[in-house]
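Quiz preparation item.
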């Protein structure tokens, strides 16, 4: 078995390389694409005189598309639509550290499982935070800092978020 010198393949880490790696992560590009498309759509809708609810609604839908475009998830599909061939790439890009593959699209089932597991933990943390908020409200008689409708909203959101977190965790195990 031939040995490989992994130290020769490690990129040098400094501020410029760190920022380059940060902005090449699929997760970061997805968030940038989401915000650009979402707030761009909301700005256009507001300039056209649409209601705030309509601007938020359409902005959210277009923001999801911007997120998919930014992360590169649908880049191959768009290339196929215009007749270009694509190459199946495994692993992290050559000039990126190996851990960067966990923050972007990947075809490896192990990486996808880890992404599901991490997403499940994040969703469960959000649901747990909502549980702490509504339990703080219940710590004394009467309403302390939440209105009745806010309490009901947080309680309901906690329930559905926890269910979604468990289902994501099950997806990580499959």
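Solution:
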């Amino acid at each position: 078995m031939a040995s490989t010198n992994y130290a020769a393949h490690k990129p040098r880490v400094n501020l410029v390389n760190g920022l380059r790696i940060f902005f090449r992560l699929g997760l970061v590009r997805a968030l940038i694409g989401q915000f650009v498309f979402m707030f761009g759509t909301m700005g256009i809708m507001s300039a056209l005189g649409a209601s705030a609810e309509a601007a938020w609604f359409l902005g959210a839908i277009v923001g999801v598309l911007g997120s998919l475009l930014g992360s590169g998830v649908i880049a191959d599909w768009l290339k196929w639509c215009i007749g270009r061939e694509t190459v199946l790439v495994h692993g992290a890009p050559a000039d990126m550290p190996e851990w960067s593959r966990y923050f972007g699209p990947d075809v490896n089932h192990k990486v996808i499982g880890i992404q599901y597991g991490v997403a499940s933990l994040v969703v469960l943390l959000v649901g747990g935070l909502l549980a702490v908020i509504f339990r703080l409200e219940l710590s004394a008689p009467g309403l302390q800092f939440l209105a009745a409708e806010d309490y009901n909203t947080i309680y309901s959101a906690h329930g559905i978020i926890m269910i979604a977190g468990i289902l994501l965790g099950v997806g990580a195990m499959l």
